[in-house]
Amino acid sequence: MTTPTRRIVLVGHGMVAVRLLDQLGRVTTERPTPLDVTVVGDEPHDPYNRLLLSEVLAGRAELGRLTLPEPTGSPGMTVRVLRGVAATVLDRDRRVVHCDDGSEHPYDTVVLATGSAAREPLPGCADEGVRMLRTIDDCRELLAACSYPRRAVVVGGGLLGLEIACGLAGRGAAVQVLHRGTHVLDRQLPPAAGAVAGAALAHAGVEVLTEADLESVRRDDDRLVGVRLRDGRELPADLVVASAGVVPRTEIAARAGLPVRTGIVVDDDLRSPADPRVAAIGDCAETPDGCPGLLAPGWAQADRLARDLAGLPPVPTAPAPNAVVKLKAVGVDVVTIGDGPEPPAGAHTVTLSDPMGRRHVQVSVADDRVVAACCVGAKRVAADLTAAYERGGPVPPDPALLLLDGLPTATVSATDDPTTMPSATTVCRCNGVTKKDIVDAHVAGDRDLSAVAARTRATTGCGGCTEVVCGLLAWMDDVNPPNDVEPSNDVAHRKHSRNDPGNFGAVTSCTTQKEISR
Ligand SMILES: Cc1cc2nc3c(=O)[nH]c(=O)nc-3n(C[C@H](O)[C@H](O)[C@H](O)COP(=O)(O)OP(=O)(O)OC[C@H]3O[C@@H](n4cnc5c(N)ncnc54)[C@H](O)[C@@H]3O)c2cc1C
């Protein structure tokens, strides 16, 4: 008996939707399942790496190279993509999705992956000239607006706000950040660490105004000229960028009568409690764990749902790695591990603070494991603690040793010799890709970054591992050359520079950060 084809309509074509398509291709290659997928995406572009938009602003990634790798296909799975088309109505009685181009798409299961939108700090302020950074079009407009040095105000001292602020400062603007709390990154950092981060930002050319609340935007005729704060202060500015959080895009679900709170309510199985034929994943979904608004939980949801849609039993998965947060800002290194700014109760916590040196490190250890940490201006210690946390292995009982000495063998950085890096070292944290996975991909014939990214998914998340992956590929080119090329003796010290023409949705092709910033 042949299995009937299941019709899936996927609303949204962002990073989580692409992950679902890719994972569907992978799992149905394992177990062929006839699937007919229609993707409806309202952005007119190929899907792209949204995380790297702030890196584009910082000049560390190129706008034209953010396209995500083509999802894996499988025999029996057909995928039709509608770009620049918005789904407007979800008719649950007829099981049809209506779109703004007049088309209708019947479904057996509809998956909502509509993401979120940037929150306006004041209603209607976007119409008054305040800019946001959510889409590739926003990024283009922002780049055009900051093409010459100017006075910029960034509203919001969270992760994205600071990334934007540092990006603008790097482009020569005088930047002030308005932050409501008593210190920046107050959802991640305790006050002392926040103060050190503030000093590091000042050193990078970003002035932070704390307990500063935006009251209105000041305009002169048709031109934005500054902002007014609730305490009466007025700040001149010719560019105002808001980063005041996100709002899940729930409109289509709400109109269809589905339960919506902050996001589209779904149970652990990612289905709406009101209608099991409707699933929601990514930023738009509110699972029993809430709406984190981060990529890793969205990808984990996509992986689970793909198995479910292919009729496969669930597999136990590790918790999504969203407990490690890294600020992607030039000149200000901040990494936090664990939930929230306060160290866990009962853990042995040690702090080393050097405000003059703009360094602050804190680690909490319980049961011989790293359970929380925050590091400002201490890249190497941050990398070591992250590796120790993710490995979950025992660490020296005195936490102070972790801050003073680090864990010399635990970390991976772009400067590490790929020959000595242990095979099991995680290279791409976003996707759990190890050195061995990269080596295996190279041996299987993937010799450029786009091929390795397509097979392993390395570099397709935050892009922070690109340099290390390039180093590994350069090393592998030497130890595993094509048949007509002699291996080189100078494996370990070869410069990591390759010219890869493909798009891979990561920082750029195999070029070192130094080369990029030149
Ligand atoms: C600049 C920036 C930096 C970030 N950095 C990080 C980071 O370092 N780490 C991290 O974890 N997260 C980061 N994020 C958040 C991360 O990008 C999101 O968590 C992730 O993109 C969520 O993916 P998604 O597919 O759920 O939603 P989205 O990426 O928002 O995609 C949803 C898509 O659906 C489309 N859509 C919506 N409604 C409809 C409709 N009715 N019909 C058709 N299409 C529709 C939208 O236009 C969009 O294209 C960052 C976000 C930004 C903007």
Bound ligand species: flavin-adenine dinucleotide
Radius of gyration: 24 Å
Global geometry: globular
Order of strands in the sheet with the most strands?
Answer: 3-2-1-7-19-18
Secondary structure: number of strands = 27
According to CATH, the fold-level topology of the largest domain is FAD/NAD(P)-binding domain
Number of domains: 4
The H-level CATH homologous superfamily of the largest domain, spelled out, is FAD/NAD(P)-binding domain
Which regions contain 5 or more consecutive residues with pLDDT less than 50?
Answer: 407-412, 487-509, 511-518
Range of helix content: 25-40%
**Percent of sequence in beta strands:** 15-25%
CATH class of the largest domain, anyone?
A: Alpha Beta
Number of helices: 13
CATH 2nd-level architecture of the largest domain:
3-Layer(bba) Sandwich
N- to C-terminal distance: 62 Å
Largest sheet: 6 strands, mixed
| Mean pLDDT over all positions | 88
By secondary-structure content and strand pairing, the structural class works out as alpha/beta
What does this structure look like?
25% of the residues lie in helices and 24% in strands. The chain folds into four domains: 6-116 and 247-309, FAD/NAD(P)-binding domain (3-Layer(bba) Sandwich), CATH 3.50.50; 125-241, FAD/NAD(P)-binding domain, CATH 3.50.50; 333-405, Enolase-like, domain 1 (2-Layer Sandwich), CATH 3.30.390; 426-517, Arc Repressor Mutant, subunit A, CATH 1.10.10. It has 13 helices and 27 strands. It is of the alpha/beta class and 518 residues long. Strands 3-2-1-7-19-18 form a six-stranded mixed sheet, with helices on one face. A five-stranded antiparallel sheet has the order 21-22-25-24-23. It has a four-stranded parallel sheet with strand order 11-10-9-15. The N and C termini lie far apart (62 Å). The site of flavin-adenine dinucleotide has 35 residues, from helix 1, strand 2, helix 2 and helix 7. Its EC number is 1.7.99.4. Pathway: Nitrogen metabolism; nitrate reduction (assimilation). Keywords: Heme, Iron, Iron-sulfur, Metal-binding, Oxidoreductase. Residues 506-518 have a biased composition (Polar residues).
